[in-house]
Amino acid sequence: MFGGGKAAEKPEAPQTEPGDAQPAEKASWWSRLSGGLSRTSQSIVQGVADVFTKRKLDSLTLEELEDVLLRADLGVAAATRITQAVGKSRYEKDIDPEAVRRILAREVESVLTPVAIPFEIDAAKKPFIILVVGVNGSGKTTTIAKLASKWTGEGKKVVLAAGDTFRAAAVEQLRVWGERLGAEVVAGSEGADAAGLAFDGIRRARESDADILLMDTAGRLQNRTELMAELEKIVRVMKKAEPESPHAVLLVLDATVGQNAIQQVEVFERVAGVTGLVMTKLDGTARGGILVAIAEKFGLPIHYIGVGEGPEDLEPFAAADFARAIAGLDEQQVLEPVSEQISEG
Q1: Rounded Cα gap, residues 76 and 121, in angstroms
Q2: What's residue 165's pLDDT?
C-alpha cells in the first residue's frame, strides 16, 4: 500500500514487491474507477433524480439541475452548457433522469476527450527528465512511486531524485520505494538545496544510462512567493544541466480540494511550465467534477487519475470512462442521440 505523502506521516513501503503474486481475482479498472467516483456520481444521480422525477422540464428544473452540477464542481461553463443541452427544445416535456445523465455524460466526454492525452516517454531524450510539482499533501511522492513502479515493471531504468528536502519522511519514502523497485535514489541531507539536487540527479541519471529521471519537489502552497521562487530556481538549474529539461512537468492535484485546484493550476503553470496533470484522490470526494472545470478552463493534458492507494489505482486518463462513471452510467452504456432520449409526455 502506498502512503498519502503528508508531512506528519511516516514513510511507508509498498506491501508488495515487483514479481510478488497478485490476487487471483483483481477488480477491473472500470470497477475501481466507478467505485472510486461513487461519491461524486451518487451526488449527481440523486440530484438529477430529485429534480426530474415526475416533473416536466421548465426554467426552474434547469436552474435546479445547474445547482446540482455546480455542487459537484463541474464549473460554471460546463454546468451551463449541460443545462442548455438538456433544455434545448424540450420545455414542458417529460425527460427521464437517466436521459439527463446520458446527456451529461456526452457533454462531459466532449470536454475531456481533447485533453485525455497518454503520457509518452521520448526515448530520443535519455534520460527523459520529469519534474513533479504540487502543494503539500497532493500526493506527489506517492505518485512518483506509482509511476516508477509502472515504468520499472516495463523494464525501464528509473532514477528518483528526492527533491523534497524539507521533509525527511519524503526522502526516506523514496529510498524505501527505490530499493523495492530497483530504482536508484539521489538524495541529499535534510534541508539541502533542491536545485543542486536536481543538477546532481540529472548527472547521475546520465552516468547510469537511465531511461527516466523522476524529480520530486517540496510541497508548496501556491501563495507562498518564496517557495515558488525556489521552484523557478530548480527549473533554471535543470536547464543549465540539460537545456531541454525538464522534458515534462507533471502537476499533481488533489481532487478533494475542489475549486482551489484551479488556482493551483494557474500558479504552477506560470512558474514551472506545467505540461500535464495527474489528479489524485478522486475516491475521497463528491466533487470529482473539478476535473471537468479544469479541462474546460486550461486545456492541459490530463495524463493520469488516481482512485486509490495501490500502484494499480493510478491509470491513464480515459475521457469516455470518466464521463460514464461520473454520471453513474454503465461502462458500455451507449450515449444515444439526444432526440432518442426524450419522451414526449
Answers
A1: 35
A2: 83
